[in-house]
Amino acid sequence: MSAFLYGVLSSLAASALALVLGLLRGSRPLWWLVAACSRYTGTGLGRIYRRQSAAEQDLARDLRQARWIKVLAGRGNVLTREVFSPLWSGELSPESIQVLLPDPRAQGDSWLDRRSDDLGRFDPGFTPDLLRAQVQANIDYLTRVARTQHHFELRGFNLPNTCRVIATDRAAYLTFYTSSAHGRNTPCLYARSPGLLYSIALQQFDTTWLNSHPALSPPPAGPASA
Questions:
Q1: Of 84, 125, 144, 161, which has the maximum CB count within 10 A?
Q2: Architecture of the domain spanning 48-214
Q3: What's the whole-model pTM score?
């Protein structure tokens, strides 16, 4: 009898835990519980967004308060959307903006090609050269619009790209890529400074930065002289 009761109670406890975790992922009012646990453990985890795209409203607010901004992305589409437009319009002028994108010109054993292969397994519209073209288009876009920022740096890398990091002096948004989904459909973690997750995000960025090179596109050629 006691074994039966233990089994029932264990099942109920497991069900309750699963319910709580599900609520934490999808409900803003319960983010306070995530934050309370993170303060106790020192992780700095403040929120969990079910999808990366769901974090953009809060990200836009944090960018407005940022003293500096660091971005490590696998494609960089977020840099061309509304959330970053106040930076490129000159409305915001942080002390520095550092952006890292995969190098679309890398040949041989390119990590960008490996990611493209992963995407092609679940997205039939992805051809081998599509990801390279998208990254290059974002680099071209940033080359033009970032002229309003005097402390902007864009660099390319050819290293394992397993996560997206958008960090400021206050917090970091961290998304770990998977081989079965686009980054926009992957959960996003919000980590406050100071904290373990925030430190990991900055370490990931800084390590990649040290192994990168300038990626700005050359300026367009002027009209030929007579």
A1: 84
A2: 2-Layer Sandwich (3.30)
A3: 0.78
